[in-house]
Amino acid sequence: MKFARPEEECGIFGIYNHKEAANLTYLGLYALQHRGQEACGIVSSDGQNLFSHKSMGLVADVFGNPDIFRYLPGNSAIGHVRYSTTGDSVVKNVQPILVNYSRGSIAVSHNGNIVNSQLIRAELEAWGSIFQTTMDTEIIVHLLAASKSSSLEDRIIEALNRIKGAYCLLFLTETRMVAARDPHGFRPLCLGKLGNSYVVASESCALDLIEAEFIREIEPGEMVVIGKDGVTSHFPFKKEIPAPCIFEFVYFARPDSFIFGKNVYQVRKELGRQLAREHGIEADIVIPVPDSGVPAAMGYAEESGLLFEMGLIRNHYVGRTFIEQAQSIRHFGVKIKLNPVREILKGKRVVVIDDSIVRGTTSRKIVKMVRNAGAKEVHMRISSPPTSYPCYYGIDTPNRKELISSSHTIEEIRRYITADSLGYLSREGLMQAVGGKAGCHCHACFTGEYPIQFPRLGPEPQLDLFEKEPLL
Ligand code: AMP
Hints:
The protein is 29% helix and 24% strand. It is built from 16 helices and 22 strands. The protein has helices spanning 21-31, 59-62, 117-126, 137-146, 152-162, 204-209, 246-252, 264-278, 294-304, 327-337, 342-345, 361-372, 404-407, 410-417, 427-434, 444-447; strands at residues 10-16, 39-45, 50-56, 76-82, 97-101, 104-114, 165-172, 177-181, 190-194, 197-201, 213-217, 223-227, 230-234, 258-259, 262-263, 285-288, 307-308, 312-314, 338-340, 349-354, 377-382, 421-424. The strands form five sheets. Strands 3-2-4-1-10-9-11 form a seven-stranded antiparallel sheet. It has two domains: 10-242, Aminohydrolase, N-terminal nucleophile (Ntn) domain (Glutamine Phosphoribosylpyrophosphate, subunit 1, domain 1, 4-Layer Sandwich), CATH 3.60.20.10; 266-317 and 329-429, Rossmann fold (3-Layer(aba) Sandwich), CATH 3.40.50.2020. It is α+β, with helices and mostly antiparallel strands. The longest helix is centred in the middle third of the chain and has 15 residues, at 264-278. Adenosine monophosphate binds at residues 251, 289, 292, 320-322, 354-363, 395-397.
């Protein structure tokens, strides 16, 4: 089953004014690989022309041959990692998008999802625009090209004023780099400095790798223009209540990153502590589902006083379970990725911590795996509330049919995953652990309260648990 949405999880990186621009962008993308593993690309500028290399595959594979960097000259570059839908349009959908138009060349990298893209696209097509890709990002370049404004800044502002949704964007022209974050600030974006060079990245872990100094996060609704005269900041968009994505904290961002004013690792640990307060149970050990469940499991163990153990060992050379789009491969995926340590689990009452249950496939396999390894009891604890609603702002949560908790009670899910008990963190507990004022994050995947309305396509069919075949 594939999820036909135009744009999903992505990471962006850019550097201005560095003689190793493309090389450093490669490293930056490497640090952001967790945000998208299907495709990646870099566009560089030598001040006169833009140069591009992009392909399907992991960063290390696409840019593994050092000769590639000879064809990416210049002192500025932007890059992109992408988790895309499958289909014949995949290769041309790889970003950054690079176009030539009446005012020169421009490249763009986008993380997020534009919710009114179909409407704008239809309008542009009616005016004669010919689209090269199926990406929502492409409408931005069409809007830019159609703008009558004389400055680049105004053209970008005009284009972005037309679009709604989640976007962190990086534009590169021959002489400038522009970063923009949507007024809700759904996805993270930060600004750094490396000597005399400026760096923009989805997450601070990318700055760390290239030893750039973290300056600050780019604000919701901010546009940062970087040129030979330095950095200028603008707030040209209508102000909105910020709604940074809470799922970045729960699962998506890297734990060593600093996003939305907080370190992700510390937030996840606090989620685990709160989970222990809400769903404590008599047990012998706490084990994480690695890697995403590790900080929460440490927090849970700390709060409950139970012993933390690595009862499941992860094969680090297998990508995220989700990369496998076919249900049948996903079933194998969990087993390929994780193996239990029998000596640790045998005869124990085990609390297993994961960050989320989406379809239930992973939890079901893990409970069975831990039990088969000799555990006496298996208690599943989830460091977020039930994921019941799809995300339209850039996280690849499937449609409601595939989200187990959209159509099943916690008791039904417990029975499906065959755990002795199942506990999810409450919504209040999540908000408390993440901190900040109530309602200052987007939590639509848990509550269905969407900060920007999205056209609903009528009721979706319910998930039939018996469609799922146990292959373990
Ligand atoms: P599932 O087997 O479908 O229930 O997926 C649950 C697993 O997927 C959990 O271990 C999560 O860490 C992970 N996960 C949750 N959300 C996502 C996402 N948007 N993309 C990739 N993996 C995810």
